[in-house]
Specification:
Rossmann fold, 3 domains, four-stranded parallel β-sheet, 20 helices, 9% strand, globular
């Protein structure tokens, strides 16, 4: 695994000096900033030269869309994240403690690990079972940080019964430290989780969270040169394949019209992922309304934007407002989120306009015959309270000069 920083992935093949001419297409086509061509060229030049930008670091929502637009296959988001990391280092403060509280698998306690300790004995036993690598199998289901909050439903799922489960409490793909500007914590997390996978004997890893599949497949390789010894796909692609083979059938149809929101990382997973998600929603009976911005023109839910403006906690809600506005325009009364982060981030704004949010995977598995006596909604409320308490505690300490 190579050392380094975000800049590794901007130019993974060492070709930017010859190929990148600051055309600015990545910023010009950005669905958020919508810069003119000349402005985009100038801003990109500032990014490459490490100069203060006029707009990018104040307006970018870090959604990966720009990576789809570079005509030379470079990754502009990596360049933007490097400049964000430069600003964090220059501040001398680092990533705030309350955000590091979201990081799992790098040696410090996290909100996830503390939540796991609150689980009833029956669910804690499931996590204990998942901690050991299963016997050699063609496919294994990896359950990341969020999925481990609701172990009972996953363990007793009939739709997922054929998949051995693997989910050590401290295993994490590293997406959160990556998105929040802490490359060192990201690299440390990757190294730790990669060591946990060394004894895993499988041909294919099925990721319960789509973000994990993106992080394992793309971020590990592009930013750190780390590559797993098995194929990695998302549960959405696996379930779609099972449906196509006739292995799964609908037991309880969900017949309603819903809005579907795409997550940031989806553009990195491509059309097969997009189609698998939509096919499953339609298969269980839903009519899907696309928001104005979708697929590789998607808008971010807002969570990563907290890195802007010296970790301004108001930024995520400001960014989410654009997606909530499009949701209102859709006329749908239900919003389905396949990303647990989007599910938690968009719930408050959607509720204000009379729209109920749903965690897609739980409900689709329910339609396929599963039951979830404890839903992610319930556990996410507990997680939210724990995070809020941490935030208040840190802020109070800072105001008193203790941090």
């Amino acid at each position: 695994m190579k050392a380094g920083s975000y800049i590794n992935a901007f130019d993974p093949d060492g070709k930017s000096e010859k190929l990148c001419k600051d055309c600015g297409l990545c910023l010009h086509k950005c669905p958020v900033m919508q810069m003119g061509k000349e402005e985009a060229r100038e801003e990109h030049s500032r990014l490459r030269n490490g100069e203060k930008t006029e707009r990018v670091l104040e307006e970018c929502t870090f959604c990966y869309d720009c990576n789809q637009y570079c005509p030379h296959g470079l990754n502009p988001l990596a360049l933007i994240m490097e400049r964000i990391a430069d600003n964090i280092r220059a501040s001398g403060k680092g990533v705030p403690e309350y955000l590091r509280y979201l990081f799992t698998g790098h040696g410090e306690s996290s909100v996830f690990e503390e939540l796991y300790r609150t689980l009833p004995e029956s669910e804690a036993a499931v996590l204990d079972k998942w901690a050991a690598p299963p016997p050699k199998s063609g496919e294994v289901l990896f359950i990341g940080c969020i999925g481990r909050e609701i172990p009972y439903g996953i363990e007793h799922s009939s739709a997922l019964a054929s998949l051995p489960k693997y989910a050590p409490r401290d295993a994490c793909c590293g997406e959160l430290p990556f998105r929040l500007g802490d490359f060192e914590a990201f690299a440390k997390t990757v190294k730790h989780t990669a060591s946990l996978f060394e004894n895993l004997q499988t041909d294919r890893l099925i990721c319960y969270c789509g973000s994990c599949s993106h992080t394992f497949n793309n971020l590990w390789r592009e930013y750190l040169g780390a590559k797993l010894d098995f194929e990695v796909i998302s549960i959405w692609e696996w379930l779609s394949d099972q449906v196509e083979k006739g292995q799964l059938t609908v037991k309880r149809p969900i017949e309603k019209t819903v809005a579907l929101t795409d997550s940031c990382y989806s553009s990195e997973l491509g059309e097969r992922f997009y189609e698998a998600v939509r096919r499953l929603h339609r298969y269980v009976g839903m009519e899907v309304i696309e928001l104005e911005n979708n697929r590789d023109q998607n808008l971010c839910c807002g969570m990563p934007s907290i890195v802007r403006n010296n970790f301004d906690v108001t930024q995520p809600a400001q960014v989410a407002a654009k997606k909530i506005e499009q949701l209102a325009q859709s006329g749908a009364s239900d919003l389905y989120c396949y990303c647990p982060g989007c599910f938690m981030q968009l719930g408050g704004g959607a509720k204000k306009i009379g729209v109920r949010t749903h965690y897609s995977l739980e409900e689709i598995l329910w339609a396929l015959g599963d039951d979830y006596p404890v839903a992610l909604r319930e556990r996410s409320r507990i997680q939210g309270k724990m995070f809020t308490q941490k935030l208040i505690s840190v802020m109070a300490g800072e105001s008193q000069g203790h941090v």
